[in-house]
Design brief:
The protein contains 1 helix and no strands. The protein is low in regular secondary structure. The protein is rod-shaped.
Length: 340
C-alpha cells in the first residue's frame, strides 16, 4: 500500500500521487492510473499490461523492461522517461509526450502514434513496424487505428529501427538519425525528412511521394522501386544509393550528389537535375524525357539505352559519358544546339 492505495492488479489509482515511488517489478496490469503522478517513479520491470495511464505524469520515470502491452498512454507525459527494452506493443500513444525519452530496443509495434511527440527521443533498434499487408488476408480494425499520423520524430535517434511497412504519412522526421533503419515498404508520403540521416537505410519500395528530403544523407541507401514522385531532394546526398527502377518523376534533385548511384531503369521524367553530380552514375535504360540537366556533371556516367528525348543538357559535362543507343531526340546539347 502506498499513500493509502492498494498496489495490485486492476487497482483504482486514478489521480494517485505516486511521485518518486519505488514500484520495482510491481503487478498493476489492468489498473486505472488515469491522471496519476508517477514522476520519477521506479517501475523497472513493472507489469502495466492494459493499464489506463491516460494523462498520467511519467516524466523521468524508470520503465526499463516494463510491460505496457495495450496500455492506454494517451496524452501521458513521458518526457525523459527510460523505456529501454519496454514492450509497448499495441499501446495507445496518441498525443503522448515522449520527448527526450529512451526507447532503445523497445517494441512499439502496432502502437497508435497519432500526434505523438518524440523530439530527441532515442529509438535506436526499436521495433515500430506493422504487419505486412501481403502476409495477411485483411487489415483488421486494430491495425487501421495504429497508423501513426502527424507524429513528431524530429531529431530522434532511430538508428537500426525496424519500421517495415509502417505508415508514417506526414510525419516530422526533420534531422532524425535513421542510419541503417529498415523502412522497407514504409509509407512516408508527404513526410518531413529535411537533413535526415538515412545512410545505408532500407527504403526498398517505400512511398516518398512529395516528401521533403532537402539536404538528406542517403549515401548507400536502398531505394529500389521507391516512389519519389514530386519529392524534394535538393542538395541531398545519394552517392552510391540504389535507385534502380525508382520513380523520381518531377522530383527536385538540384545540386544533389548522385555519384556512383544506380539509376538503372529509373523514371526521371521531367525531374530537375540542374547542377547535380552524376559522376560514374549508372543510368542504363533510364527514362529521362524532358529532364533538366543544366550544368550537371555526367562524367563517366553510363546512359546506355537511356531515353533523353527533350532533355536539357545545356552546359552539362559529358566527359567519357556513355551514350550508346541513347535517345537524344530534340534534346538540347551542352553547346546549346538541338539534337536532330
Amino acid at each position: 500500500m502506498i499513500d493509502g492505495k492498494e498496489i495490485e492488479p486492476n487497482a483504482d489509482l486514478e489521480g494517485a500521487n505516486l511521485l518518486g515511488a519505488n514500484l520495482l517489478g510491481v503487478d498493476l496490469h489492468g489498473a486505472n492510473l488515469r491522471g496519476a503522478n508517477l514522476h520519477g517513479a521506479n517501475l523497472h520491470g513493472a507489469n502495466l499490461h492494459g493499464a489506463n495511464l491516460h494523462g498520467a505524469d511519467l516524466s523521468n520515470a524508470n520503465l526499463v523492461d516494463a510491460n505496457l502491452i495495450d496500455a492506454n498512454l494517451e496524452r501521458a507525459n513521458l518526457y525523459g522517461a527510460d523505456l529501454l527494452g519496454a514492450d509497448l506493443h499495441g499501446a495507445n500513444l496518441c498525443f503522448t509526450n515522449l520527448a527526450f525519452a529512451n526507447l532503445e530496443g523497445s517494441d512499439i509495434s502496432y502502437a497508435n502514434l497519432e500526434g505523438a511527440y518524440m523530439h530527441y527521443a532515442n529509438l535506436r533498434g526499436a521495433s515500430i513496424r506493422r504487419a505486412n499487408p501481403a502476409d495477411s488476408n485483411s487489415v483488421d480494425a486494430k491495425l487501421k487505428k495504429t497508423i501513426p499520423t502527424n507524429a513528431d520524430f524530429s531529431r530522434a535517434n532511430l538508428q537500426y529501427a525496424k519500421l517495415q511497412y509502417s505508415n508514417l504519412t506526414a510525419t516530422d522526421l526533420t534531422g532524425a538519425d535513421l542510419t541503417a533503419a529498415d523502412l522497407h515498404g514504409a509509407d512516408l508520403h508527404g513526410s518531413k525528412l529535411k537533413n535526415v540521416n538515412l545512410q545505408y537505410a532500407n527504403l526498398h519500395g517505400a512511398d516518398l511521394r512529395g516528401a521533403d528530403l532537402q539536404g538528406a544523407d542517403l549515401h548507400g541507401a536502398d531505394l529500389h522501386g521507391a516512389n519519389m514522385h514530386d519529392a524534394s531532394l535538393h542538395d541531398a546526398n545519394l552517392s552510391r544509393a540504389n535507385l534502380s527502377r525508382a520513380n523520381l518523376s518531377r522530383a527536385n534533385l538540384t545540386s544533389a550528389n548522385l555519384t556512383s548511384a544506380n539509376l538503372h531503369a529509373a523514371n526521371l521524367t521531367a525531374s530537375d537535375l540542374n547542377a547535380a553530380r552524376l559522376n560514374a552514375a549508372r543510368l542504363t535504360d533510364a527514362h529521362l524525357p524532358d529532364v533538366h540537366l543544366i550544368a550537371a556533371d555526367l562524367t563517366a556516367a553510363n546512359l546506355t539505352g537511356a531515353n533523353l528525348t527533350g532533355a536539357d543538357l545545356t552546359s552539362a559535362t559529358l566527359r567519357a559519358t556513355n551514350l550508346t543507343d541513347a535517345n537524344l531526340e530534340n534534346a538540347t546539347m551542352p553547346d546549346g544546339t538541338k539534337h536532330a
